[in-house]
Specification:
Blueprint: H1 2-57, H2 74-77, H3 80-85, H4 91-101, H5 129-140, H6 171-180, H7 183-187, H8 205-212, H9 225-234, H10 253-256, H11 259-270
Amino acid sequence: MKWRIVLGLLAVVVITGVGAYVAISEEARMAAFTEAYHARQIETGGALFEARCRTCHGPQGTGIEGVAPAINSPELFSGQRLQAIGFSGTMQDYLKGVISAGRPVPSAGTNYPQRMPAWGESYGGPLRDDQIDALVAFIMNWQGEAGPAATAPASEAVGTDIHVALPPGDAPAGAALADSLGCTGCHMLSTVGPGWMAQGQEPGIGSRAASRLEQADYTGEATSPEEYLVEAILQPQAYLVAGYESVPMPGNYGQQLTAQQLADLVAYLLSLH
């Protein structure tokens, strides 16, 4: 009989110890689980942003001038935009509402040519609530790091002279730069601007640059394919491609790019035959 009492007491002690250990470690275990879930949610949101949002808001969410505003922006995360419209909810609530319902009219003081569609299923869009939440998590992940893409110091900016002497360009570096600046959003991922890649009987921009100079309607001052591309970047209003007159390209790249960056962009564009 005594050994049964001893075994019972030992069992109680063991069970109590196990329970105490589980209770102590549960908080850490749940924190790790939550962190892993949030990481997967951000990853899912990143894939959705790449597929659905990148063409208008840019690959890093810093916006594309004349197309869509920046969402990777200090103005948004500081609450200035919410204050301007009198929104009293959380940032997550605001983002979820805008993504779900879309923006049928542009923000006050802006005149973006495209209207943001409704993405949420409850508003007729293609995305479930959990997918909307994943997009919100991905955008919120920019908080604390939000800001415009780095630009060249004024002393290093290339300016607007299309005849400027450029160093040798690096096409892969130009490809990465075109992506970070949001150029690919208009010229490769959508039809907002003239396409860069070959399509049907039309060659890519690298071959097309030479033929532009021979067109009767060409109004620029370039004398070579390289200069034409430099002009298109630094002085986009010098010649407007037919059919794209109403979608002005940003005219401030001369203040953003160094001569090397411009050379890299031109080298990349010339490689697209």
